[in-house]
Amino acid sequence: MHPSGLFVAVSFSSGFKIFAIVNDRLEVLKDIQIPNCKIIKYSHGGHFLTVNEKEHIFIYDSIYY
């Protein structure tokens, strides 16, 4: 969950998706295909998103991805 509470990142077996929480539903903002990602974490300020894939770590800007 993003620190603002407006976004959530969810890991799947084929990658991860970023959802926006809008009223009473989730809207997909971004779908990124990285297989075997197990850990997703926003930075404390929410400006970065880190994702791991086996021994690699990817850092995304949470505005532009």
Quick tags:
65 residues, mainly beta, three-stranded antiparallel sheet, 0% helix, 57% strand, globular
What does this structure look like?
The chain is mostly beta strands. The chain contains no helices and 6 strands. It has strands spanning 7-12, 15-22, 25-32, 40-42, 48-53, 56-61. The protein has a 3-stranded antiparallel β-sheet with strand order 1-2-3, with no helix packed on it. Strands 4-5-6 form a 3-stranded antiparallel β-sheet, with no helix packed on it. It is globular, with a radius of gyration of 11 Å. The two termini are 16 Å apart. The mean pLDDT is 84.
Distance between the termini: 16 Å
Q: Classify the beta-strand content into a percent band.
A: over 45%
Order of helices and strands: EEEEEE
Instruction: Figure out the total of helices.
Output: 0
Arrangement of strands in the largest sheet: 1-2-3
- Main beta sheet: 3 strands, antiparallel
Mean pLDDT: 84
Work out the helicity level: under 10%
